[in-house]
Amino acid sequence: MIPIENLYRRERKRLLAWIRYRVSDPEDAEDLLQESFYQALTELDSAGTIEYLVAYLYAVVRNKIGDWYRRKKSKAHIRPELESEFGLEDRIQSREKTPEQDFYRQLILEELALAIEELPHEQRFAFVENVIHRRTFREISQETGVPEGTLSARKTYAKEFLSRRLQELKPLFLEEFN
């Protein structure tokens, strides 16, 4: 039996839990797990031996998750709302628009989109409905039965999490524009 089959049996549940922590849809998580094992098996055949197979497999899974998020978040309509909500247009824009600024803006928005997907479902729902879809808490409350104050609090928690994420990015990207 080849090592990847043993690894699959031994690590499947742990890897799937790790993926599910990052990807809420169980079917997508299972697909990502299968794709990752397939890629690892394919690359193992072509690369020969890989010394730290578990670490390699986690790297493959992490990359697959990143690719999945990048494909999923390719919705251009969220950009202006996110830029406005976090005041990014003031930080990223200058009098001259350069390709470098566009590159950094895209990177920041991609990271924010990834971070939004990491939010707990209730917070993500309140944030996306209010900020991206421009719905009032009253409208959302009437539709869902969740009190307006609860929705507002969920959005606040979401925005705090996303703001912390932006602060983590600041040393990497935002200094480029000061």
TrEMBL record:
It holds the Pfam family Sigma70_r2. GO terms for molecular function: DNA binding; sigma factor activity. Residues 7-73 form the RNA polymerase sigma-70 region domain. It comes from the Bacteria. The keyword DNA-binding applies. Residues 110-159 form the RNA polymerase sigma factor 70 region 4 type domain. One of its GO terms (biological process) is DNA-templated transcription initiation. Transmembrane segments: none annotated. Keywords: DNA-binding, Sigma factor, Transcription, Transcription regulation. Belongs to the sigma-70 factor family. ECF subfamily. This is RNA polymerase subunit sigma-24. It comes from Leptospira perolatii.
